[in-house]
Amino acid sequence: MKGTEDTTKWTKKWTLKEHTKLVMDIDWAPNTNRILTTSQDRNAYVWNLEGNDWKPALVLLKINRAATSCRWSVEENKFAVGSGGKVVSVCFFDKENNWWVAKQIKKNAPHTSTITTVAYHPTDNLLMATGSTDFHARLFGTFLKDVDAKEKRGEFAQIKGDWNTQGWVHDVVFSPNGDYLAFVGHDAVLYVVECANASNLVAVPTNCSPFKKALWLSDSAIVVGGHDFTPVLFSSREGSWKCYGKAETTEKPKEEKRGVGTTVTTSTESQITSRHKNCLNSIAYYKKSGGKVSDFVTGSLDGRVLFWKVADLEKSVQGFQA
């Protein structure tokens, strides 16, 4: 990150004292070098680097429940914040008053439960997707007359797509080229839909445990993580999506036969054969090559952060190609 030559010094400065409760999400705007944080205290802050210090600017979210998720738009002149109050706040900077203000998506109450995840399109500053515990993923237009170019004019909060699932939606992610939107959740199904054709939805069911996070490795491959403790791999060949299985086995080893009256005590962690020992709650790319992700990292509730090479997974998982 820019301006962080002394890692120890930067860590001491990055204390988030302004938040009074658990931080729910964080996103960095690489071009403007600004950090966005949201919290259970119903607040969001935009952090700007001034000298060696990160200075917070409060965002007027106008919500009555926790701020659960946040993402910058591709042009980094606005961002979206999901909340437990069934609304999404699309925020922009008011130069006249020198603060960040929000315009809320709550027309006709499209969300009927907590918004768990938000995502902005990688090339279109207007398109924003949400996932919710009301079993829906949605695509919205977020035109703001004071922010977006007039030639892109559109209706704010216009629903471009609305898709029903069989469980809470935990993550929504756009493909690198922006043509597709993928979402995953508690039903352990991968959904992929064309952004330009809301009716063209593909659902790939699995026998896995619930999914939490997803990452596009390329325009035709996705890695998903969740309660299986290891990445699950999907790819598309000739427009047909398929699950190629887990990156590694997570099965418990067979127990040895024991005599009558004998007991064997083993910890739960020692019985798990995957490198992660708990739910994956974070996936992010680490390196890219030729427009594709070559290395990615996973974070887990076991406290571990692990690195994965896509080339190694292509060799170990039969049929998978990123």
Reading off the top of the CATH hierarchy, the class is best stated as Mainly Beta
Major sheet: order of its strands? 1-2-3-4-8-7-6-5
Shape: globular
- Count helical runs: 2
Query: What are the segments in which pLDDT stays under 50 over at least 5 consecutive residues?
Result: 1-5, 7-12
Q: Indicate the CATH architecture.
A: 7 Propeller
Strand content: over 45%
Give the class from helix and strand content and strand pairing. Answer: mainly beta
Radius of gyration: 21 Å
Give the helices and strands as they follow along the chain.
HEEEEEEEEEEEEEEEEEEEEEEEH
CATH superfamily: YVTN repeat-like/Quinoprotein amine dehydrogenase
Fraction of residues in helix: under 10%
Sheet having the most strands: 8 strands, mixed
Q: Using the coordinates shown, work out and report the CATH topology.
A: Methylamine Dehydrogenase, Chain H
Mean pLDDT: 89
Report the span from N to C terminus.
28 Å
Structural domain count = 1
SS elements, strand count: 23
Write up what this structure looks like.
With 322 residues, the protein is mainly beta. It has a single domain (7-262), classed as YVTN repeat-like/Quinoprotein amine dehydrogenase (Methylamine Dehydrogenase, Chain H). 4% of the residues lie in helices and 49% in strands. It has two helices and 23 strands. Strands 1-2-3-4-8-7-6-5 form an eight-stranded mixed beta sheet, with no helix packed on it. Residues 1-5 and 7-12 have low confidence and may be disordered.
Structure characteristics:
single chain; Methylamine Dehydrogenase, Chain H; 8-stranded mixed beta sheet; 4% helix; disordered N terminus; globular; 322 residues; mainly beta
